[in-house]
Write a structure and sequence with these properties.
Number of helices: 9
CATH superfamily of the largest domain: PDZ domain
Mean pLDDT: 75
Strand order of the largest sheet: 17-16-18-13-19
CATH class of the largest domain: Mainly Beta
Order of helices and strands: HEEEHEEHEEEEHEEHEHEEEHEEHEEH
Largest sheet: 5 strands, antiparallel
Shape: elongated
Length: 450
């Protein structure tokens, strides 16, 4: 390794943004070579990166490419803990245009390595990179949220790579986007920021309309601790948006991270239940879009919470592995069907109604045996006379409330006249002979009172 730069070896894997291409006859990867020549102009950004290394130290990066190789010189690897990686100014896949003003266009791979070896302690790289996606259009189906995150600086960096910004060519203007969060860095340890988040302000300084260079200068001028305001998007799975009963939610979290939810106890029909109290903004649960405050937790990794105390449920949730499986009963609220996060999987729950208070005395194997699903009516509406359709019942059968007193049902006949005519008295006598007159309803519902 020379100056922290390793020569590329034959057949070396190159995992950059332009690494796909089909092999052609003769073994020449022409498509790959063509794509590596440069980033298309409309997606191309340029930045200056200054690195200062101590005498005898290395830059800690691997350069591939050259005139004798398959394309322009580019960063193919950043050594963890190295100077280049800790600067948070470079990404794997960035192209190197020049080193201290010397253009690399016509240099072979070994000449580039020699140049960087002898360039001195101060290294200025002109870097070409791929611009992040444009700002999202105004779409009622996209939910954008903001979060304030406090980070401590290590060296001159907060542990993330920032790209984009305003450009004199309006077509190249982009939001300031986090394109990489360095493992083990300040942002990664705090846990809220993710790749794709958009930086809005730093210590109250708005960055809307700021160029990439201006944004980097603002970050360098920050004190040891800085407050970042970041915008991120949340996608709600279609299954959750249309939920009418229990769901199974699988969420994958990074090792050592927290889900970001706190639990509380509630009551439903005088029975204690475990519900989600709060969700930490920008946490893995918040970003999943599958869970919301007020959702009832029915089970955690297959363990029912029916007889769990709040402490037991909290400990159970804290002990989950990298992938947690929750059975939930979504709280009624407005949700939009969006593109789901890759870290969450949602499916309809087919578990028995152990969340239904009438289950202990209800031994029928038929899922819709209990007359009124407990999730269909809030506690304040237990006495409502509305008829609800249960998703667990036959599609041709609706469940109605039982009739204990036919006089409480609505009558289709006209009110009794106060006049005591002979006809009225006969009508009253006929009604008196019947203790419970059947109430006629449409065919599938039948009679509420027998």
């Amino acid at each position: 390794m020379l100056c922290g730069l390793s020569r590329e070896t034959p057949g070396e894997a190159d995992d950059g943004p332009y690494c796909k291409g089909g092999k052609v006859a003769g073994g020449a990867d022409v498509a790959l070579a063509c794509r590596r020549q440069s980033i298309p102009e409309e997606f191309r950004g340029v930045t200056m990166v200054e690195l200062t290394k101590k005498e005898g130290s290395t830059l800690g990066l691997t350069i591939s490419g050259g005139t004798d190789k398959d394309g322009k010189p580019r960063v193919s690897n950043l050594r963890p803990g190295g100077l280049a990686a800790r600067s948070d100014l470079l990404n794997v896949g960035d192209y190197i245009r020049s080193v201290n003003g010397i253009h690399l266009t016509r240099l072979r791979h070994d000449e580039i390595i020699t140049l960087l070896k002898n360039v001195g302690e101060r290294v200025v790289l002109e870097v070409e990179y791929e611009l992040p996606p444009p700002a999202p259009e105004n779409n009622p189906g996209i939910v954008s949220k903001t979060v304030d995150v406090s980070l401590y600086k290590e060296g001159n960096s907060f542990g993330f790579v920032l790209r984009g910004g305003a450009h004199e060519d309006g077509h190249k203007s982009r939001p300031l986007v986090l394109t990489y969060v360095r493992p083990g860095g300040p942002a990664d340890r705090e846990g809220s920021l993710k790749v794709g988040d958009r930086l809005l302000s730093v210590d109250g300084i708005l960055l809307h309309g700021a160029s990439h260079a201006t944004a980097l200068a603002t970050l360098r001028q920050c004190s040891h601790e800085a407050l970042f305001q970041v915008e991120y998007d949340v996608a709600i799975p279609d299954t959750v948006a249309k939920a009418s009963g229990p769901l199974i939610v699988e969420i994958t979290k990074t090792p050592g991270s927290a889900l970001g939810i706190s639990l509380t106890t509630g009551s439903h029909r005088n029975k204690p239940v475990i519900t989600i109290d709060r969700i930490k903004p920008a946490s893995v649960v918040d970003r999943s879009g599958a869970l919301h405050a007020g959702d009832r937790i029915l089970s955690i990794d297959g363990t029912s919470t029916e007889h769990c105390s709040l402490l037991e449920a909290t400990k159970l949730l804290a002990s989950v592995s990298e992938k947690v499986r929750l059975e939930i009963l979504p709280a009624p609220q407005s949700r939009w069907p969006l593109k789901p996060s890759e870290a969450v999987k949602v499916q309809r729950s087919e578990q028995p109604h152990r969340w239904d208070p009438c289950v202990p005395s209800c031994h029928s194997p038929r899922p819709g045996h209990c007359r009124t699903p407990t999730w269909a009516t809030p506690a304040s509406q237990d006495q409502s006379r509305s008829l609800f359709s249960s998703p667990f019942s036959s599609p041709t059968m609706n469940h109605a409330f039982p009739c204990t007193n036919p006089s409480t049902l609505p009558r289709g006949s006209q009110p009794m006249s106060p006049r005591t005519t002979m006809g009225r008295r006969r009508q009253r006598r006929r009604e008196h002979k019947s203790s419970c007159k059947p109430w006629s309803l449409p065919s599938p519902l039948g009679c509420l009172c027998a």
